Amino acid sequence: MSAVLTEFQHSVLWHVMTGKLIVKDLAITPCSDLIPVDSWIKSLPRNWTQIRVQDALNLSKGQTPPQKISGDYPYYNGGVVPTGNCEDYNYNGDSVLISNGGASAGAITRVHGPIWVGGDCYVAQGDKYLLRALELLNQYREVYMEGSAMSHVKLPRLKAQWLPLPPKEERARILSFIEKFTHFIPDSAPAIKDLDEWYQSMLWHGLTGGAQ
User: Fold for domain 53-161?
Assistant: First the structure.
C-alpha cells in the first residue's frame, strides 16, 4: 500500500475515533457540535468524554523469554514485528505493544496472541475500542517519550495520556466502521490519484453495502 494512501487511511480513522467525523448507519458525516478539550485530541463531540490510559487499559511489561528461542509462538521484543519464535506464550488475545527503546522506541503496534512479549515492550490489554484509540498516540509519541539520543517510553507519562471515549453504542458503530474501512481498500487503490474521489466512492458504495 502506498505511503500516501496509508496516511489517508490513518487520517480518516483518526477523525472518526476522535469524533470529528460521526458514524451513523455505516456512513460518516462531520460533527457540528465539537468542544475543545485540554489534550492531544484538541476537541471532542459534546456527548463524548476522555479517559486516562491508566484507567482505561491494563498495562504490564513483557518478560524475559525461556532460554530456547524456538517454537510456535511469535516473539516480540521491542520491535513492531516478531524477532523469532518461542516455545511458550505470556499474552493471549487482542493486545497493543508499546516499544520501550531502540530503533522502534515508542511505536504502538496492535497484535493478536498467543505471543511471547519480551522485556523491552509494554503491553496494553482491555476494551477493543480503547485499544484502537491507544494506537492514535503513534502520531504523538513526544507526549509519552523522553530522552534525545536514546529515547524511551516514560511510563507515568503514557499512563497519564487521555483517550477519547464515546458513548457505548457509538463505540460499537465506530468499530464496525473501522472493520469495513480497513478491509475495503482494494489492491488497486495506490494507483488512484484522486483520493477525494476514491474516498467518496468508498464511503457511498463500500460502507453502505454497495460493495462487499
Answer: Adenine-n6-DNA-methyltransferase TaqI; Chain A, domain 2 (3.90.220)
